[in-house]
Specification:
The chain is α+β, with helices and mostly antiparallel strands. The chain has eight helices and eight strands.
């Protein structure tokens, strides 16, 4: 089988594996992981995609059957979005757009993983990640802020490469919010996904939307956080207020701050 075909099979199997892994007894997981890895793991290190699934799988295996239970956790959620991606993608073939997104998400995933985050999903050109589950992370907000700063630095660095090749720069918005959420297996039988549910998710995405009002043409990355994130993260994170905003679908104003990516 060609390497490209093996890679596609490997990715499909990995996604289904992660969605259903915590349904199985812990004793069975070790056997399945060993057999599955030997069968589908690409033969070259450079072929391995960078996702948040591997750390999450290890945590779910360690927790065993307890991992399937829904629990309330204090977590921090991060959303990213590429500015004007629709117009950007119109200039690319479907193959080139897919290659661009894979490279883009690999950069972002590396930053999330470096801070112990879990990548929940990719939505078009957006990424959703969270901290505080399945592993307990008291510093979940600080981790999310550090990951966001690393993402901004990666985007700026990659844009230098793109300009050298005559390619347009990539601009990104990031929104972060912290609070309680239900975490665990969500979905119909056979299509279970370890994820989180709660207003915190919508709020994080709405905060990312606010960045549209704050971003200038010179900005390559803007990181906005709620006051809840700053309280949780402590003095490690420095930010400037951008005012109170009535987020879409909400009635009460939210204090929003711009994180300094120093």
């Amino acid at each position: 089988m060609r390497l490209e075909s093996r890679y596609c099979v490997w990715r499909a199997q990995r996604l289904q594996f992660v969605r259903s892994i915590s349904l199985l007894p812990a004793r069975s997981l070790a056997v399945i992981c060993a057999n599955w890895t030997r069968q589908y793991e690409p033969t070259t290190r450079s072929s391995r995609p960078c996702t948040g699934s591997r750390p999450m799988v290890k945590q779910l295996m360690a927790q065993g059957e307890q991992a399937s239970a829904l629990v309330e956790r204090e977590v921090t959620v991060l959303f990213t979005d590429i500015v004007d991606f629709t117009s950007f993608a119109e200039r690319l073939s479907a193959s080139d757009a897919a290659t661009f997104l894979n490279d883009h998400f690999q950069q972002l995933a590396a930053c999330v993983e470096a801070e112990g985050g879990t990548i929940d999903k990719y939505i078009g050109d957006s990424l959703m990640a969270f901290w505080g589950a399945p592993e307990m992370q008291p510093d979940h907000s600080a981790r999310a802020c550090r990951a966001a700063i690393a993402i901004a630095a990666a985007i700026v660095g990659d844009n230098r490469r793109r300009r050298g090749l005559g390619l347009p720069p990539v601009r990104i918005r990031i929104g972060i919010h912290a609070g309680p959420a239900m975490v665990g297996n969500i979905g119909a039988p056979g299509r279970i996904n370890y994820t989180l549910v709660g207003d915190i998710v919508n709020t994080a995405q709405r905060i990312e939307d606010v960045a549209k009002k704050c971003m200038t043409n010179e900005d390559e990355a803007v990181i906005l956080v709620s006051d809840a994130v700053l309280r949780s993260a402590g003095p490690e994170c420095s930010a400037q207020p951008v005012g109170e905003h009535i987020l879409r679908g909400r009635h009460e104003p939210t204090h929003v701050f711009r994180l300094e990516a120093s």
